[in-house]
């Protein structure tokens, strides 16, 4: 796992909704101030919104930090086996609660100019082979790109350093169906491929860990803490979150929580446990649910985060909101 003093190379896999934006902000602030990570690429996949919207959202966050030097790569525009649910509606149609932030007098009108010519799956392969056992994949979205990469290029399966995933569940609690979390429900086949093929450590932050009974960060704290921060991106986050968390008592940027766990595992992760995990693909009522081997009959393939330290997660969010 990443420590506070060890630099890791990161590929940031995202569908860039509002919580992904907090996560990217946190990661890049850590890169600047803590110098414990280096983001090599941002890869985009279908999920919260269209890939095209996610590219715009990502570029806007990079621009707000003067980090448009980080390359963006377009990835899969649909799941391996597309289902009835094509994408999420958690953060409006554009992933940023439909806040109109894209001024074509400032930003390019053609989204193609914002991305590299190489496909996301190709750059994942190239970077892993260029830096064997040194690439950490931070996955905040459906795992379609990762699954395509490890199936198309099996030579990378044993050369990934680690994979951090926000998704799934460990108590059968869902947010898209009664027992399936959004990222895993959108493309469960991709989850199955990743869990069955890669050999590196896989660390999962499940949906239940983000619920207020397990990790309570109040909206009152969130808005009071960042209300007057002089930062272009935080100003945008304030506008988005005013819509996203209207009439809510708790603030739950799940993707940022995973990034906090990646950056500060010793501080932010309170309890965790290793399991052998797979995912239900066929169940009429349970498709997309994580299935854990509680009987310990199979060798573990994941570490499941169960609880996190509220105060340390807040500290990580404060890092993300650092003005400079």
Structure description:
It is a single chain. This protein has 324 residues and is an alpha/beta fold. The chain has a single domain (8-320), classed as Ribonucleoside hydrolase-like (Inosine-uridine Nucleoside N-ribohydrolase, Chain A, Alpha-Beta Complex), CATH 3.90.245.10. It has helices spanning 18-33, 51-64, 120-130, 144-152, 182-186, 188-197, 219-226, 232-244, 254-263, 265-268, 310-320; strands at 8-14, 37-44, 72-74, 135-139, 162-166, 202-205, 269-275, 277-279, 290-292, 302-308. The strands form two sheets. Strands 3-2-1-4-5-6-10-7 form an eight-stranded mixed β-sheet, sandwiched between helices. The protein has a two-stranded antiparallel ribbon with strand order 8-9. α1 (18-33) links the parallel β1 and β2. The protein is globular. The protein starts with 7 loop residues before the first strand and ends with a helix.
Provide the fold topology:
Elements: E1 8-14, H1 18-33, E2 37-44, H2 51-64, E3 72-74, H3 120-130, E4 135-139, H4 144-152, E5 162-166, H5 182-186, H6 188-197, E6 202-205, H7 219-226, H8 232-244, H9 254-263, H10 265-268, E7 269-275, E8 277-279, E9 290-292, E10 302-308, H11 310-320
Parallel strand pairs: 1-2, 1-4, 2-3, 4-5, 5-6, 6-10
Antiparallel strand pairs: 7-10, 8-9
């Amino acid at each position: 796992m990443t420590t506070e003093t060890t630099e890791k190379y990161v590929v940031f896999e995202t569908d860039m909704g509002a919580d992904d934006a907090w996560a990217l902000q946190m990661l890049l602030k850590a890169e600047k101030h803590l110098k414990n990570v280096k983001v090599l690429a941002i890869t985009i996949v279908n999920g919260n919104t269209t890939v095209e919207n996610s590219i715009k959202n990502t570029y806007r966050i990079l621009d707000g930090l003067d980090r448009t030097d980080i390359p963006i790569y377009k990835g899969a525009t649909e799941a391996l086996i597309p289902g009835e649910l094509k994408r999420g509606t958690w953060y409006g149609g554009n992933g940023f609660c439909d806040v109109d932030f894209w001024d074509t007098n400032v930003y390019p009108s053609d989204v193609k100019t914002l991305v590299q010519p190489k496909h996301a799956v190709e750059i994942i392969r190239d970077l892993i082979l260029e830096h064997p056992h040194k690439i950490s994949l931070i996955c905040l979205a459906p795992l379609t790109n990762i699954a395509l990469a490890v199936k198309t290029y099996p030579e990378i399966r044993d050369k990934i350093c680690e994979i951090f995933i926000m998704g799934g569940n460990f108590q059968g609690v869902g947010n898209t169906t009664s027992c399936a979390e959004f990222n895993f429900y959108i493309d469960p086949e991709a989850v199955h491929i990743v869990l069955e093929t890669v050999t590196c450590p896989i660390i999962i932050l499940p949906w239940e860990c983000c619920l207020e009974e397990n990790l309570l960060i109040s909206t009152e704290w969130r808005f009071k803490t960042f209300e007057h921060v002089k930062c272009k991106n935080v100003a945008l986050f304030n506008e988005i979150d005013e819509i996203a968390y209207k009439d809510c008592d708790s603030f739950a940027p799940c993707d940022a929580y995973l990034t906090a766990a990646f950056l500060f595992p010793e501080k932010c992760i309170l309890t965790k446990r290793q399991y052998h995990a797979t995912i239900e693909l066929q169940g009429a009522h349970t498709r997309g649910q994580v299935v854990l081997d509680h009987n310990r009959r199979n060798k573990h393939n994941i570490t499941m985060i169960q609880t996190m330290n509220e105060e340390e997660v807040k500290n990580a969010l404060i890092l993300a909101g650092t003005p400079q």
